Amino acid sequence: MRLARIAKGYSAREAAASIGVHENAVLRWESGEAEPLGSNLLKMARLYGVDPDVLLEESN
After folding, report:
1. Do 16 and 22 meet the contact criterion of CB atoms below 8 Å apart?
2. In the Cβ-directed half-sphere of 23, how many Cα atoms lie within 13 Å?
3. Residue 49 class from Cβ within 10 Å (0-12 exposed, 13-18 middle, 19+ buried)?
4. What is residue 32's three-state secondary structure?
5. Would the pTM of this model clear 0.85, i.e. be above it?
């Protein structure tokens, strides 16, 4: 998730604001500490222009 975010040039704060969550949520998802809800995963995938599976593979 982090690689996809960085590739698009978003800070964690910018990505979180676009998705509608707190910055800490994005950071926890990226670290593997938590997983996003399906709706947030889809929002993130659209924002980053990647398939949701790619985001899940990166976090594992």
Report:
1. yes
2. 5
3. exposed
4. coil
5. yes
